[in-house]
Write a structure and sequence with these properties.
Helices cover 61% and strands 0% of the residues. It has 2 helices and no strands.
């Protein structure tokens, strides 16, 4: 489970970096942004699809809240 989380965080860091780099090119009349939420399925602790989607949705809104409340 921890290995999946670490891999996911690494992927999200690259994703965010690529968005920042794309916006820095300055050739667009708008800024690209994305809010990301995730949930990991574990056979040891199974959850329904609804539960997984709900967790991902909560995580997405938390990500959005953190980004919009940066100093």
């Amino acid at each position: 489970h921890e290995a999946h989380e670490a891999g996911l965080e690494s992927m999200l860091d690259r994703f965010r970096h690529n968005i920042i780099a794309r916006n820095a090119e300055g050739d667009l009349t708008f800024k690209v942004s994305a809010s990301v939420g995730h949930s990991i399925f574990s056979p040891e602790e199974p959850k329904t699809l609804d539960e997984l989607v709900r967790e991902a949705d909560v995580a997405m809104y938390e990500d959005k809240r953190k980004r919009h409340h940066r100093p």
